[in-house]
């Protein structure tokens, strides 16, 4: 500590900062605004532009930091932060260059894609959202921050809060599904988990909400593609989770790759300044996505100098990897295409973030080697991850109560995902040590115990096409492709299956079949696995489909033929244990879908909060009607609706009541409903409340999620659940983009999914 104080004292002396010592000899510095203004006044233009530059860590390795190209730039004051560098030792080496060798000794920030955990990995965000438990979600982010900060990281490019209603888009796996209300609650929980309302703590990290904005709605579901929608849809359906993160105090925002109103988000002043700063009051800084600035050249927005100036003037402060700011803004300043005031404001926001993180007080705040040894991938964190992961799994079907399995007899575990620990953490698990992940085979063997015989066969490869499998198993997430013929693989699987009492088929996507740049046009299980599953069904043995996926899949055929389906997403480093806990009934499944499962890819995009047409279907059986809004070859409704999820027990809703049938703008209504556990197991149920605004100045959705509660009920227990409704629950953006609640009639629906049929009504009066 003494060395740190001397270092800080020397740095502050060079800058001429006034400082004082308190009674405990701890160095303090001036208040933020004064400190940052004084530092800014001493910076050269190159040093200012350096603060806006965020390169990747490049060739820096432990013990060689001083000789790297990036290190040279750091020493010259040309770098504001680094990302994708980890470990206390490496980060300390690099930080030392910044605070000892650069002229002004400004510390760096260190960012990383800590998306759903660090080394202790939680379910992919789409799976995590299916817990519908904000406490658990916040806790997962808190553990991630604890581990990442212990390894030197102080900034995460998370949460990703893009609403998406088209699962062809691979990054649906990284978000929280289709609903703006639920997405907003999760955005707040994640920001609070990472930042813990106090960035001065050494175990909190700065969050970065992304991708601003509308990234989840690309045409054709193709990543990076054009997004085009009305402003009224932006504000009502897609903007709320970003705003919720801003309201929660998120420290930074990342720009999206797509265009908005014909201008890429990275250079869109209406988005970054008018909406984000002026309307929402955001006070932090905006960073581009990877090479977001130079990518605007391909969008047709000009050369590197032009797009860099466009981005800065739009309200973007930090350039990730593109080096357009550092390379061109000096020339643009000379040519009066940008102003020094705009540059200074951008630098000020970066310096303020570093101040808030406590890096000026102690640049080595996140470089405690003891924390790195004792706070990462701990037994307690893994235990929590196992519990949280189990609650993310969604039981889609359980005909004949095939589940839970008995801890006796013989189980045949078959499928390319059965012994695939490298795939369990899922996409965007960059800090995970894959060798520590738990496969389904290992998990079942341990949880089942010695009284159960577990037989295993791979059964098939991921896909018949080896090239496809290679593209779907990148970043070390191999499935160890089997070189035997499909006939040999199937014969082995059938031999194992015929010796069993029950078959568990571990099928679906590999981890990298979803995620960034993993868009798909065919959302079915690959044909090689379909053929395997159909052969297993012909044995006559009961089959449980354990479905791995990073998005809603088209499983219409499987739903018709397989008696039990457990959707397990990619449940993280403890996946094998968590899935086994649910399969054997040690944990009763309680996950609920946050993204609609289509019957056919031709229905996409599909979501529950759609609007009515002037010609809706008049029947509820899905029968085709000419000159009505329907398909000639498919039903309108999805296979599984938003909010759906079964349990090993059953829940009964009754006695839905509302405190009054009228409410004024200052009033409040109470809605109550009785929920009873009528089955044979203790369980958890997510009680969901939806509202329909029957008449509006603009068309309104058929229903919108407005509240929910996840409750635990013992077998035979009944509970009265209460919801409060205020005028805030009724507001929406009208055609003038005013956030209003309009007097009129409203219906309230309460139940276990978005098809809830218990209904009460009320009138909002003037």
Automatic annotation (TrEMBL):
Stored Gene3D superfamilies:
Glycoside hydrolase family 3 C-terminal domain (3.40.50.1700), Glycoside hydrolase, family 3, N-terminal domain (3.20.20.300), Immunoglobulins (2.60.40.10)
Q: Which reaction does it catalyse?
A: Hydrolysis of terminal, non-reducing beta-D-glucosyl residues with release of beta-D-glucose
Any coiled-coil regions, as ranges: none
Q: Which SMART domains match?
A: Fn3_like
Domain Fibronectin type III-like spans what residues? 685-754
Single GO cellular component annotation?
periplasmic space
GO BP term, pick one: glucan catabolic process
A Gene Ontology molecular function term for this protein is: beta-glucosidase activity
| Compartments (UniProt record) | Periplasm
Protein's UniProt keywords contain RNA-binding: no
Against PROSITE patterns, the record matches this protein to: GLYCOSYL_HYDROL_F3
Under Enzyme Commission nomenclature, its number is 3.2.1.21
Could you tell me which InterPro entries the record lists for this protein? Cellulose_Degrad_GH3, Fn3-like, GH, Glyco_hydro_3_AS, Glyco_hydro_3_C, Glyco_hydro_3_C_sf, Glyco_hydro_3_N, Glyco_hydro_3_N_sf
Which family would the database say this protein is a member of?
A: Belongs to the glycosyl hydrolase 3 family.
Write down what this protein is called: Periplasmic beta-glucosidase
